[in-house]
Write a structure and sequence with these properties.
This is NAD-binding protein. This protein has 580 residues and is α/β, with parallel strands linked by helices. The protein folds into five domains: 114 residues, 3-Layer(aba) Sandwich (Rossmann fold), CATH 3.40.50.720; 101 residues, Alpha-Beta Plaits; 104 residues, Orthogonal Bundle (Helix Hairpins), CATH 1.10.287; 104 residues, NAD(P)-binding Rossmann-like Domain (Rossmann fold, 3-Layer(aba) Sandwich); 85 residues, Alpha-Beta Plaits (2-Layer Sandwich). Helices cover 44% and strands 19% of the residues. The protein contains 21 helices and 22 strands. The strands form five sheets. It has a six-stranded parallel sheet with strand order 3-2-1-4-5-6, with helices on both faces. Strands 15-14-13-16-17-18 form a six-stranded parallel sheet, sandwiched between helices. It has a four-stranded antiparallel sheet with strand order 7-8-12-10. The longest helix has 30 residues. The two termini are 32 Å apart.
């Protein structure tokens, strides 16, 4: 992007976006009301202190000359109003907004020309979900409605990948080898990455593929571990009984205990006092309590008549109280939640702690990837996402995740992984540490806001997958500046890489009749996929020329992206000038 970019808002995500813009070599003008002009983080950029909702401030930032506008405050109304004002002052600039309201995200982009609205929770959820399944993720993006990930894998002495060529490990070519850095190499050279070169211990490779394939590459035995572990039917039945009794309120527990005690005592009286058999004694007791029938009590001795009379009076009061309390309990729908205990597997499931915007998006991503069993732990019983989550097939447990007993109820010790995604960072850290105590080897993905805190937690608290939502979302905001063709941006060895889809629109397209392998060499592309005009994946043939309607997806250095887009524009202009 040759022209300057206007960045409105230097909050947590704003600063991270600024880092990526710097790495991309983009000229930035920043506007904020709270930041000080002498902040050392502003070194090398133009900064204006003021309210960017004011036209005078935007004109001071020379908005008419910028190529892109990023508005990333935490207030949807401020972002929308600023975006509309910026669109009026510069009709051609690409505008990218941060939005919380999910209903407005898609509608706003369709209504206003050249404006993109992005949600931090929607951007971070795919990486949180994929991290839970396959470990560290460098980037995640959707390709033909199928989620893809970019991941780095280190070859260890005990790894099944050691001393084998990548082409032998992945003979079906489902995975794309992006780069191969040898142990003794000081620089990573993408152009020499080869599927025929043997991988040695200490080497690092970067691959792209669907999460399940990447996971099998990291953990060859993961396919066997995907099968859910279920307890026996008897054990699951008693689990439901135990959970149901724990969910009961204290008055219900007392009434139930008294009722059971009375039934047992009365049955014993009928059995030993009147010489009834055990079935008859139980039948007489239940009949007397529920209907008040004497069942021949007038023929018995005096003491038994007193017992029957007292039992009648006591039963009326007991049944009335018990019915009222249990009805109130059922109205609160707690029994349904208790019955869900039977659906919690004994192992190899995914646990999500926190069902907010991020947690619900993570659930959707896991289901989209094909994860079969998800257990959600949510503290608030009135959470608006609970009904939707249950409709999607997830098990929702209501409880406090900072209590070890509640976490044990969700079987976090034997779960495949645990995602901690509440809106409170300290709570997330506390839950993660408790889970680590219950199972030190458990894969824990924890959501944090600050990237510095993320690094600290990774190193000091031994939580390997502590992820910052701002770190995850910031690249997408930068990618949106380059247009709809750019699907994702991620750093690789200090350089930004762009994932891009290019469709050959007509015969004047610069890629028309070009061979992909020639394009890869000229523009330093890593080819990911070639798709025919009918959207069916073609057999990858890098030597066959591209036709109109086909599209290719590739990864290239961000600096090369500028050259690529500029060449495309120049060819369009040249074709237009050549026409009479």
């Amino acid at each position: 992007m040759r022209g300057p970019v206007l960045l409105c808002g230097l909050g947590t995500i704003g600063w991270r976006i600024l880092d990526f813009l710097r790495a991309a070599g983009v000229s930035v003008v920043a506007i904020d009301t709270t930041c000080r002009s002498d902040d050392t983080r502003l070194s090398g950029i133009q900064f204006i202190s003021g309210d960017f909702r004011e036209e005078a401030i935007l004109r001071q930032a020379n908005i008419a000359q910028v190529q892109g506008v990023l508005i990333v405050t935490s207030d949807d109304l401020i972002n929308i109003s600023t975006g509309l004002l910026a669109r009026r002052l510069n009709p051609d600039a690409r505008i990218v907004l941060r939005m919380f309201n999910q209903n407005l995200v898609n509608r706003l982009g369709k209504t206003v020309k050249n404006m993109t609205a992005l949600s931090v929770s929607a951007l971070s959820a795919p990486i949180l979900a994929i991290s839970a399944l396959s470990g560290d993720v460098m980037a995640a993006f959707a390709l033909r409605e199928e989620r893809r990930q970019v991941a780095e894998i280190e070859i260890t002495e005990t790894s099944s990948l050691a001393n084998r060529a990548f082409g032998l490990i992945d003979p079906t070519e489902k995975l794309v080898l992006i780069s191969h850095q040898k142990k003794d190499s000081s620089q990573q050279k993408q152009e020499v990455a080869s599927r025929q070169v043997a991988l040695k211990p200490g080497d690092r490779i970067v691959v792209c593929g669907v999460p399940s394939d990447v996971q099998r590459l990291r953990e060859p035995s993961s396919e066997q571990l995907r099968e859910l572990l279920w307890a026996g039917k008897v054990r699951r039945f008693f689990r439901v009984i135990h959970r149901t009794f724990r969910e009961l309120e204290r008055p219900v527990q007392i009434c139930l205990a008294v009722l059971v005690t009375v039934v047992v005592a009365s049955t014993m009286v009928y059995h030993w006092g009147v010489n009834d058999s055990w079935p008859d004694a139980l039948y007489h007791t239940i009949s007397l309590i529920t209907t008040g029938s004497e069942l021949g009590a007038e023929k018995t001795e005096g003491w038994f008549k007193v017992f029957v009379s007292l039992l009648k009076i006591f039963s009326i009061a007991l049944i009335a109280a018990f019915t009222a309390i249990v009805t109130n309990y059922l109205i609160k729908i707690r029994l349904g939640a208790a019955l869900e205990a039977r659906r919690i597997p004994d192992g190899n499931h995914i646990v999500i702690c926190g069902l907010g915007n991020v947690g619900f998006r993570v659930l959707e991503e896991l289901l989209r990837i094909g994860e079969e069993s998800v257990v959600i732990l949510e503290k608030k019983a009135d959470n608006p996402f609970i009904t939707a989550a249950r409709r999607k097939g997830a098990v929702v447990v209501i409880g406090d995740g900072t209590l070890p007993d509640v976490l044990k109820q969700c079987k976090v010790e034997t779960a495949r992984s645990v995602i901690v995604a509440t809106s409170l960072e300290l709570v997330n850290l506390e839950i993660a540490l408790i889970v680590a105590e219950l199972n030190p080897k458990q894969r824990i993905v924890i959501r944090l806001g600050d990237s510095l805190a993320t690094d600290t937690v990774r190193q000091a608290a031994n939580v390997g997958l502590a992820l910052s939502v701002t770190e995850l979302a910031a690249p997408a905001f930068v990618a949106a500046l380059f247009g709809d063709r750019v699907m994702s941006i991620f750093p690789l060895e200090g350089k930004l890489q762009a994932v891009m889809e290019w469709k050959i629109a007509d015969e004047q397209d610069m890629f028309h009749k070009q061979r992909p392998r020639d394009l890869a060499q000229e523009y330093h592309l890593t080819l990911l996929e070639r798709t025919t005009a009918d959207l069916k994946k073609s057999t990858w043939d890098s030597g066959r020329a591209l036709e109109v309607g086909e599209s290719i997806t590739f990864i290239l250095p961000l600096q090369q992206l500028e050259q690529l887009l500029q060449t495309a524009v120049e060819k369009i202009v040249a074709v237009s000038d050549s026409k009479p």
